[in-house]
Amino acid sequence: MFPLQKGRITKQAHVGLPEGTFEEEHGREAFDGRVSHLYRSHPPTAWVRIDGPLQPRAYDLNGLEPGDMTDPAGAWQRILHNEDVSIYVSRPTGPAPSFLRDSDGDLCYFVHKGAGLLETDYGPLRFEAGDFLVLPKGTTHRIVPDAEAETFLYIVESRGEYRLPDKGILGKHALFDPGVIETPEPDPHDEEGEFQVRVKRDERFTTLTYRWHPMDVVGWKGDLCPMRLNKRDFRPVVSPRYHIPPSVHAVWKSDGFEIGLFAPRPTETGDPTALRVPFFHSNIDKDEVLFYHQGQFFSRAGIGEAFITHHPQGLQHGPQAAAIEASKTKEFADEYALMVEADKPFERDDALADVEIEGYATSWAKGMGLLD
What we know:
- The protein has 372 residues and is mainly beta.
- It has helices at 321-327, 363-367, and strands at residues 22-27, 35-40, 57-60, 77-81, 85-90, 99-102, 106-113, 116-120, 125-127, 131-135, 140-145, 152-158, 192-201, 204-212, 227-230, 250-254, 257-262, 265-266, 280-282, 287-295, 307-311, 316-317, 332-333, 335-342, 347-348.
């Protein structure tokens, strides 16, 4: 296939848009497939009413109270799920009385707040805010939060294995050098008593009771193990003259989805005609869930730390009007946000209904003065 050109356009996507137009990227397979750019006279998100099951939504996760927030033995709160991935919130106030072995999938704990110790078969890992803690399916482990710190964990459970993204022509040391990934050293416990391991399978638990401490591993070898990576070690790829698509910010890949990290970065100041905010694009093949971790989230108003937005397949989305105007003089994006981009649509768990932000679905039109 070759690119066709009709009407008023720009030769270079995201640069030098025709006066009075808004660019919409209409593409397949997120940003990897065939694509066209439509130059509209109005933003494609400026609907004044939306009816039906497809709704862009936003939620304030600070209002959630998972079971482990009041009971150390309590469960996480699941918020979104599909066949490939489930997303949970955990806010433990102390170590659980038992260990956990997740047989539903690999785990990626993102530490939004807090610090402490992750105990695993392979050995312990200290953690702090901004850490990704990746555990292979079936790893026996326990989160032991520091007593003086509030702990807030955003958990992405994968049915497939987590792996590093293919960095292509950027080279294997781009984004982050695999050498910065920390793995645990054995710390065997030679203790007798009564120790419980809860095995999670299909959202149900089976409890195993041992006469010895389950953290009794004296050594390990292989290429399957827990990993720790901090947000500080992620170095985003940027261009001073072109807005790079979100797919370049991938941190972890799995079957049916990927996790990306938007990290502090300079904006596109090298060309006054280049877009400095995410371009409008159509969600055709992916559900996008963005967790706002820290900073000034300049692409949309009314969003705070520990909020999420969910943009479903089938609807366009992009920056709000105020963000477009503010971007014209903005030279640095000072934010951290975690993106889960999934092939299959997410189903919402009931708990999210209580923390939904009213009016988000028409916030683009409201920002343009089309609604009261």
